[in-house]
């Protein structure tokens, strides 16, 4: 029963994230005007706002002008729902769930803005930094010392990578947004899980890039946003990081 409640609320949350993804980039307000078709500007009725199902019922087209609706809408809603169900399954309800719900929301919104526009809006970083600091001060996510170490490790390591890439390869290997994002993740997860996030993001990013090159979706030298890999790695580290580290230490030593 509680799973159903989490699933429904998170579908609605996913629909709200879609609004954030669209409006944070275009600079519109999150709350006003009410949801409307980006093409014909017709405001949407309650039926148009039912997550996933309205997209399927309308077969991906706007009810009013017939313009194609981006499949990103149902994808974000479904992904959001699956992520929150997993979050609930692993950490249960409580203050931790509340804190990491905000963390997860930031990761999801950043992922899709970065995929579409190759940018990570500073407002999301600021919200993440403030929340991450707050939750660690009241000991909900991790202690403040661990959080600050995590921030320093996350921010510092990617900054170093960026500086080295600029010095040695004379190119911008790492965007400023990616550096700040790993800093935010550090605040929420502490230093151990941040180190794991860094490693996982490099593995996942590497594997995906090879697949994209092999399938010729991307060419050598094409830009591939790194923010989604960092976000996915941060999510995996949050849910299963402690087990992964235990397993790794057990195998190696
Ligand atoms: Zn329309």
Radius of gyration: 19 Å
What portion of the residues fall into strands of 2 or more residues?
Answer: under 5%
Tally of helical runs: 8
Fraction of residues in helices?
over 70%
How would you describe this protein?
With 253 residues, the protein is mostly helical. It has two domains: 1-93, no CATH class; 95-253, no CATH class. It contains eight helices and no strands.
Summarize it.
The chain is mainly α. It has two domains: 93 residues, no CATH class; 159 residues, no CATH class.
Annotation keywords:
single chain; 253 residues; mainly alpha; 8 helices; binds zinc ion
SSE topology:
Blueprint: H1 2-26, H2 53-57, H3 72-91, H4 95-117, H5 122-137, H6 144-169, H7 176-214, H8 227-252
Helix pairs in contact: 1-3, 1-4, 3-4, 4-5, 4-8, 5-6, 5-7, 6-7, 7-8
This protein binds zinc ion (ZN).
The site of zinc ion (ZN) has 8 residues, from loops.
